[in-house]
Amino acid sequence: MINFFTVDSLIINKIKKILNKTKIVLVKFCCSLGKYFLNFNGFKVKNNWVKNDQNQINLDKKLVYFLSKTRWPSFKQLKHVGRYLTKWELRIVNGCFFVILIGLIFISVNFYNKHLQNLPINGGNYIEGMVGAPKHINPLYASVSDVDNNIAYLIFSSLFKRDKNGELINDLVESYQVSQDNKNYSIKIKTKVNWHNDSSLTVDDIVFTFNAIKDAQYMSSLRTSFVGVELKAINDNTVEFILNEPYAGFLDLLTFGILPQELWQQIAPSAANLAELNLKPIGSGPYKFKSLVKDKSGNIWAYTLIKNDNYYGQIPYIEEITFKFFNSFSELLSALNDNLIHGVNYLPYQFQGEVVVQSFLNFFQLRLPQSTTIFFNPKANVALSDKKVRQALAFALDKNKIVNQIYKQNALIIDGPILPDSFAYDTNIKKYNYNIATATKLLDEAGWQIVKINQEDINNAETEIKSTDEKIRKKAEQKIFLGVGEWRAKNNEYLIIELVTADMPEYAKAVEEIAKFWQVIKIKTTINLVQANKIQSQIIKQRDFVALLYGGLAGADPDPYAFWHSLQIDQAGLNITSYANKEVDQLLEDARLISDKNVRRDKYIKFQEILVEEAPAIFLYSPNYIYIQAKKIKGFDVKKIIMPHDRFSNIESWYIKTGKKLIL
Question: Which letter, b or e, does each residue of 445-478 get, where b requires 16 or more Cβ atoms within 10 Å of its Cβ?
Fold first, then answer.
């Protein structure tokens, strides 16, 4: 066996020759490899030999190191390694290098996945379509129009706003305190808040806005909400609201936008609704006005906002938001299908099947405190003054089938005036589940018996209709109207219900289904569709209906005072069924004055028990709010909204563009 570690003059000469070609570093490297592989192959140097020749080995190393400029070989030198290794040893070396390479790749990929992430970056333009056009982007007037309200929400700041779960959170408010009697609200506002024109927002702006709301000359739609409330400035950053009497839901009212006093005080109150600032507003919100585009007729068809880089809160990622306006949902859908817009503020259910690019869109189902209800007016039809008749009409409806026919289960069945996601909801509330037998029994007990009309009766009625006796003529008219069949009658009067609703596809479909169900219990139902923009003035305000199918927002606070207290029966109120109950009045009065949620809940539960038992209305369903957005828009995380504009409650988290960032 060759003593690899013994160096004599002959070996040194050989080493020198090699160094002339490859430099001494390669020799050191090869010696180390040789020693390793010799040991690996079973060549063991005896301990005694190693001990005796250790000095010689050290001298050899010193000689090699002396002749070497560096201890690491170059790539040029490495090509000579093969001279000193067998083919089998080379395979092992190559295998080791391969394993090392695979390991490095694995480590790199793992590091990339764990430490390099796609994160939102600034930029992009979001385009949303809406039916309608802006007119008053002004907190004083915007509440009557979803289009105005949506844009105003992004431009103006408010004292309080909603988070993604519909909960009330601070906006301009730094902190607040409520007096023990719940009549005084002391509010401290944030400092260093600027308007879009770079001037500072102060408490004077808040006082000015509130006084403008209360001033009848401004004709603000918010005025009635603050009757009996005053506001005064305490110091440079504190205001105090003073209430005549406590109101538990008062903070929910303080979500109106704040106007800049410096600009609006120059405009006469009576001319405020005509000011140019209504279309080119100055606010302090996350976005500010950039431009608008009109057609030849002067109609606005595009409105663009740009992000406010001086915003006091989290600055949004999306650079611009453009709203495009359409005359109808058909035009809106056409733009969506042609990829001309990235989102739709709201799309009725009957149009969803016409969306042809659904795979590229997100359909967000948002909870909204909206309820669709059938309201009865006993003054217009005396039959409805009987509780058993109203209950029978409720038991005769299959709510699940109605919802499936219209909304395909995208709505929540409700059984009372307070929605299930409210803290005041009665979980044990009485339910009028579909039961034809119970409905029939109740009608029989109420004296409404089934009467059969045959063709002979119709023929006789055609003769009797010419009678001069009003009672005979009226009865004949009813028979001809009802036609051949079985119908409910009492004291020679037939039970006929006129069901009124807004002329909208989902409502029209709902009343058709309701009429079919009531026909099963032998009640004739006529349908009257009224233009949506006339339903308030012609039907609700005038109380001109027998039964009305209507949907409305309940608001953030569960307080139903405006809908069911007897003081709200007149035309100015919303108690359209003329419902009056002294115990209910007292419960509603007490509940709205108490801040303790547990006490309020107890009173509202008792209120629900009474109201649902007496059935002045049939509570049907609460439809979800469908918000459509292209999948390339990221960050939307809203679950519940109080108003449609609350879908923008986490607008600062939306993004379109992303970039890589190293996270250690």
Answer: ebebeebebeeebeeebeebeeeeeeeeeebbeb
Distance CA 87, CA 71 (A): 25
Nearest to 578 by CA among 587, 565, 561: 565
Q: What 3-state DSSP class applies to 68?
A: coil
pLDDT value at residue 474: 81
CATH code assigned at 651: 3.40.190.10
Geometric angle at alpha carbon 549, from 547 and 554, rounded to 5°: 120
pLDDT at 42: 43
The closest of 587, 258, 211 to 426, measured between CA atoms, is: 587
Residue 349 lies in a domain: yes
**Structure tokens given for 196:** 């879009």
Residue 115, in any domain of the structure = no
User: What is the Cβ-side half-sphere exposure of residue 11, based on CA atoms within 13 angstroms?
Assistant: 12
How much is the pLDDT for 284? 97
pLDDT at 62 (0 to 100) = 67
Instruction: Of 185, 262, 261, give the one whose Cα is nearest residue 230.
Output: 185
Residue type, 192: K
647 located within any domain: yes
Is there a single domain that holds both residue 226 and residue 277?
A: yes
In order, the DSSP letters of 258-295 are PP-HHHHTTS-GGGGGG-GGGTS----SSEEEEEEEE-
DSSP letters for 378-390: TTT-GGGGSHHHH
What's residue 44's pLDDT? 44
Burial of 335 per CB tally in 10 Å (0-12, 13-18, 19+): middle
CATH at residue 416: 3.10.105.10
Inter-CA distances, 420 with 121, 166, 374, 408, 411, Å:
39, 14, 18, 20, 12
Does residue 467 share a domain with residue 606? no
Q: What is the DSSP string of 480-497?
A: HHH-SEEEEEETTEE-EE
DSSP code string of 297-333: TS-EEEEEEEE-TT-SSPPPS--EEEEEEESSHHHHH
Helix (H/G/I), strand (E/B), else coil: 449: strand
Number of domains in the chain: 4
Say yes or no: 259 and 316 in one domain: yes
- Provide the pLDDT for residue 106: 86
H helices present in 465-541, as ranges: 470-482, 505-520
Tell me what pLDDT residue 19 has: 47
636: phi then psi, degrees, rounded to nearest 5:
-70, 125
Q: Distance of alpha carbon 301 from its chain centroid, rounded?
A: 25
How far is 640 from 335, CA to CA, in rounded Å?
27
Could you tell me the residue range of the domain that residue 426 belongs to? 385-436+499-623
User: For residue 374, which of 278, 495, 499, 259 has the smallest C-alpha distance?
Assistant: 499
Is 92 a member of any domain? no
Question: What is the predicted pLDDT for the residue at 51?
Answer: 53
Q: State how far the Cα of 604 lies from the Cα of 613, in Å rounded to an integer.
A: 14
Give the tokens for residue 294. Answer: 């009109």
24, 163: one domain: no
Query: Exposed, middle or buried: residue 579 (CB in 10 Å: 0-12, 13-18, 19+)?
Result: buried
Sign of the dihedral defined by the CA atoms of residues 405, 406, 412, 413, in that order: negative
Give pLDDT < 70 ranges for the chain: 1-54, 57, 60-82, 84, 661-664
Same domain, 197 and 321: yes
